[in-house]
Amino acid sequence: MSYRPLVTNGRLAERNDATQLFQVVVKLKDGGECRLFYGPDGIKINRLQTTPCPVCRRDYYCSCMDKFIEEISSQVDLEELKAAQAAAK
Questions:
Q1: What element of type H or E holds 27?
Q2: Residue among 54, 57, 58 at smallest CA distance from 34
Q3: What are the φ and ψ backbone dihedral angles of 12, each rounded to 5 degrees?
């Protein structure tokens, strides 16, 4: 069975409008968490070490989530998160 990440929650962790760098922490349905880095060079992802990797089951750093950048980032609306953070201030 192939892994299908499902984003249940996302929050804008850091933003720098001057350099167009944004960090979004997403919570996945399987309990894992990832940090997405949006920048001028594209999107990068890191799995936070809260639970073992759902793909390889390692509890240390791996790059399995790199395969799912497009699928995870398509479930995150960065513009909506930026607007919500601005409205909360």
A1: strand 21-28
A2: 54
A3: -80, 110
Per-residue pLDDT of the chain (89 residues; tens, 9 = 90+): 489 999 999 999 999 999 999 999 999 999 999 999 999 999 999 999 888 999 999 888 899 999 999 999 999 999 999 998 888 87
| Residue 89 CB coordination number (10 Å) | 4
Inter-residue contact 76 to 35 (CB < 8 Å): no
Query: Chain-centre distance of CA 63, in angstroms?
Result: 13
d(CA 68, CA 89): 32
In the three-class reduction of DSSP (H, G, I as helix; E, B as strand; rest coil), residue 85 is classed as helix
